[in-house]
C-alpha cells in the first residue's frame, strides 16, 4: 500500500489517499474531514502524466480525468513489477529507442524531410500569407521606397508620364491604393506593378499600341496586380528566407528593408497562371466600367504575342499569351459589353502619342 494524493477532476484540491495495486486494477481509498470514498481504476483507462523515480502522476478515464500523485520512490518499481507490459507504463520515447539504430536513422530522416519541406515550401507560403495582410499604409510606404530605388536605374520620360497620369485620372478606377504611373525610357516592351500602387511603364510598349483601349486594358491589368497584392506576395515568397532571418533577429521592420534592398528582383518576378488570369479579368472589368471596347485586352495580348527581341522580356515572365487570348475571347463572348465614346480619354491618348 502506498500513500499519495487523489484528485477527483472536479476540484483542484488533493485528498489524502491510500493506493493498493491489485492484480487487475488500482484500488484507491481517499478521505477528507467531510467525506471519504473509494475508486477502482481499470488498467486500460490509466494514463501516465509524470513517471520518474521521485514522482509518479497517473490519470484515469475521460475528461474530467481523475488523477493520483505518489511521491514514494518505490511506487514506480512496484507498478512495473505488478503490471509488467501494461500500456500505461510504456514510454513513447523508450518505444522509439527499442527500434534500434534503424529506427533512429529513419526518425532522423523523417525529421530532416519535414525540415526541408518547411524551409523550401512552408516558409515561402507563410511569407506570402503574411504579405497579404500587410497594412495598406505600410505597403504603400514600402512601395514608395521600392519605387524610388527602382527609378535610380531609369530615365523618366516626364512628358509621357504627365500624359499617362492624365489618362489614368480620366478613367474610373477602383483601388484600395492611390495609383501612380511613371513612363521610363526603355526599348524592352514591358510594364510592371510594384507594391502600394506604383506602376512603371516602358515607353516601348506605349509606342507599339494603336488603340487607347489597349492602354486601358494594360492599366487595368497592372492595377489588378496592385489590388490583389500579387507583386507584394511574389516578392515576399521570393525573399522569404531573408525575411525570416529579420524576424528571428527581432527586426520586424527589416522585412520592408529586405524587399527594398532586393528591388532588382522585380524584373524577374513570375506570377502564377491564376494571378495573370485574375489580372486579365481586372483589365476587362476596367474596360467595362468605362464602357470601352473589351477587345482592347485582346488587341494588347495579340500585340505582345511576338517573337521580336524587344518582346522577349515580357513573354519570358508571363504565361502563354495564346492561352490568355483564348480565355479573354471566351469571356467577352459570354458577357454583354456596352461601349460609348470617351472624349477625355481620347484627348489624353492623343497627347500621350503626340498626335
TrEMBL record:
Entry cofactors: Zn(2+)
Sequence intervals crossing the membrane: 103-123
Keywords from the named record: Hydrolase, Membrane, Metal-binding, Metalloprotease, Protease, Transmembrane, Transmembrane helix, Zinc
Species whose genome carries this gene: Pontibacter anaerobius
Cofactor stoichiometry and binding remark: Binds 1 zinc ion per subunit.
Keyword Metal-binding part of the UniProt annotation: yes
The protein's name in its UniProt record: M48 family metallopeptidase
Signal peptide: none
Residue stretches making up the Peptidase M48 domain: 168-330
Domain of life: Bacteria
Similarity section: Belongs to the peptidase M48 family.
